[in-house]
Amino acid sequence: MKDAIYLSQALKEKQFSQQEFLEETAKKAKKLNPELNAFVTFATTDLPQKKTDSLLAGVPFPLKMLGQEKKGWLATSSSVLFQDHHASMNSNYVRQIESLGLLPFGQTNSPEFGFKNITDPVLYGPARNPWNVAHSPGGSSGGAAAAVAAGIVPMAGASDGGGSVRIPASFCGLIGLKPSRGTMPVGPYAWRGWQGAAIDFGLTISMRDTEALFYGLRGTASGAPYQASPAEWQTHPEKKTLRVAVCSASPIGSTISEEAKQAIKHAVDFLVEQGHDVVEVTYPLDGRHLINSYYQMNAAETAAMITSIEGSLKRSVRQEELEPISWTLLEYGKKIAAATYIESLHVWDRAAVTMEELFQEYDLFLSPTTAFSAPEIAKDLQSDLIREKMSQVSELSEKQAFDVVTEMFEESLQITPYTQLANLTGQPGISLPTHLTAEGLPLGIQFMAARGREDLLFTIGKLFEENQKFYLPKNVQ
After folding, report:
1. 364 pLDDT exceeds 80?
2. Which of 101, 345, 362, 372 fits 54 for a cystine, CB–CB 3.0-4.6 Å?
3. Share of the chain above pLDDT 70, in %
């Protein structure tokens, strides 16, 4: 599989027809999907009616079955509650995708409402990692990552509310950018995705594809509640020497794998070798305090979402209609005081100021993307005791319910403690595929930059890519 820009150019040069391209993609998808479960539908779009000079025109582009809605296509959010629901209009993200000449092609697997860092919804079953099908491709953009890593498509729609682009990128050996808050299309029905923490983008296999997709999607709607930093619209002088802060320690004080430490060591050695100034720092924030605020927001937003759904259904949602994590967040969210919710957002704002102060001294902040490589699908990330507490969460106090939420996510969090920061502060982060474990599984490194400084992430990504430091899937050239 060549990257999207190569394939788009080959299409323009008539090396193959648009119909042949789509048919070949569909053939690969249907051949590999029984094993991977990356796609949950094979819906296809009409051939493009207008020509575009986009670098990505004509490339099949899977949509994530969560928020990336196309009129008439299923829109289930991977929930049994919506298993027969269809979208009534295109999301603005999909409209912009189509304006670039990308062709919506099928819909990819994700966990219910995107609440997990693995992909195993009850409605569709688990997605599998092309590197080793006994392992998860991650979540919540797990199906998208599996489709790209298998070489079915060169890029796919993804979204990131706590690491859901970068985690699958780390687990599947892909490039995963989480753009700055306010840069990507939102609406027309949902404008505040988790109060700006969640953002749509994609998973890719080359830095030039990543950059082309970013600048093709970037924009701002006058009514959007979050607007891109002015820095995003400026041209910045290229710096020969970057100052990089690095920290491999877990922000929540948990254990990280020796492989993650090795990934950072190799990256640091390379950066120093290239003449960059790398400084080891302590983690700049209290990760536990941050993740607590994230849980509070998530639960409150879930309660608001389900309340809206109940209004449409004209009845209450029953416990058996939601997966246990969704039900637990709903019930905890009902108990959260307004003051608690508002304070959780203040925690984010204070963290954003701390990070912007860090970026006044450093150009980039380097950490592992994930503390471990992809977990096995068979790994149980919750105990029977926790599940019992989750089933009874309705009867608990707010504090007790919060403790249950913390417990139910703890094992998952220890695998992926690094990614949530960029979502809460609004800063961009990128996972680069620079490490393979002794088991032969990918494990990414993450760079963050100040808001609006995606250009620095593109610069550092190209540096690793051009020096053959990427470990891409074997199906990708």
Report:
1. yes
2. 101
3. 99
pLDDT category of residue 477 using cuts at 50, 70 and 90 = low
CB 160, CB 201: distance < 8 Å: yes
Q: pLDDT tens digits for 434-447?
A: 999 999 999 999 99
Quick: pLDDT tens for 94-131. Answer: 999 999 999 999 999 999 999 999 999 999 999 999 99
| Cβ-contact 158, 203 below 8 angstroms | yes
The pLDDT assigned to 35 comes to: 98
Residue 110 among the catalytic residues: no
My answer on whether omega of the bond before 391 falls inside 30° of 0, hence cis, is no
Whole-angstrom distance, CA of residue 70 vs CA of residue 92:
10
For range 39-43, the mean pLDDT: 97
Catalytic residue (one of 8, 159, 164, 326): 164
Q: Read off the pTM.
A: 0.98
Of the listed 77, 91, 140, 293, which one is catalytic? Answer: 140
The 3 state secondary structure assigned to the chain is CCCHHHHHHHHHCCCCCHHHHHHHHHHHHHHHHHHHCCEEEEEECCCCCCCCCCCCCCCEEEEECCCCCCCCCECCCCCHHHCCCECCCCCHHHHHHHHCCCEEEEEECCCHHHCCCCCCCCCCCCCCECCECCECCCCCCHHHHHHHHCCCCCCEEEEECCCCCHHHHHHHCCEEEECCCCCCCCCCCCCCCCCCCCEEEEEECCHHHHHHHHHHHCCCCCCCCCCCCHHHHCCCCCCCCCEEEECCCCCCCCCCCHHHHHHHHHHHHHHHHCCCEEEECCCCCCHHHHHHHHHHHHHHHHHHHHHHHHHHHCCCCCHHHCCHHHHHHHHHHHHCCHHHHHHHHHHHHHHHHHHHHHHHHCCEEEEECCCCCCCECCCCCCCHHHHHHHHCHHHCCHHHHHHHHHHHHHHHHHHCCCCHHHHHHCCCEEEEEEEECCCCCEEEEEEECCCCCHHHHHHHHHHHHHCCCCCCCCCCC
140 is known as an active-site residue: yes
Torsion of Cα atoms, 195 then 201 then 203 then 207, to 10°: -120
Q: Is 64 part of the annotated catalytic residue set? A: yes
